[in-house]
């Protein structure tokens, strides 16, 4: 019985982990900011703490909010599924276009923040003042509802993915920098993201069709 219960929690967690990696492990302003802070060793610990806390809090609130909204307004779930599928399809198309053409993903953050306060404010800004971030969080909360009572495990998996990506960016910045000087590395990453986003769009549509 214990093994069955563990499996029932592990599978949603693993699914949340996969979805989270597909959503969060993306080329963007936050990733560029963390890479640059890590490369210059400019208060990277504080930057990672702010980003991780913001991600975890918003994911948890999204999962809990959708439980309440789905019971009081059942029409919201199909509406979000359709809008989310459209967004993901467009996101996949943009990622595929970036993968097809060369470009730099480090442009959104040209300089590392010098003071700890500036670094923390920058991390918060690049995280929450970003429509893609909010759409990602809303999608996680929506997808978590497909796991019923194990929605929290799905959310925990997404939080784990966020933390892993942040640690990889911050702790491995010096190792990643030589690799991502080559535009081909960004193109390969964007190509993988395009595939993941397209698959998520299909999954959302499958829930409402």
Automatic annotation (TrEMBL):
Transmembrane spans: 12-35, 47-69, 75-93, 114-134, 154-176, 188-206
Cellular localization per UniProt: Cell membrane
Keywords noted in UniProt: Cell membrane, Membrane, Transmembrane, Transmembrane helix
GO molecular function: amino acid transmembrane transporter activity
InterPro entries reported in the protein's UniProt record: LeuE-type (IPR001123)
Name of the protein in question: Lysine transporter LysE
PANTHER family noted in UniProt: ARGININE EXPORTER PROTEIN ARGO, ARGININE EXPORTER PROTEIN ARGO-RELATED
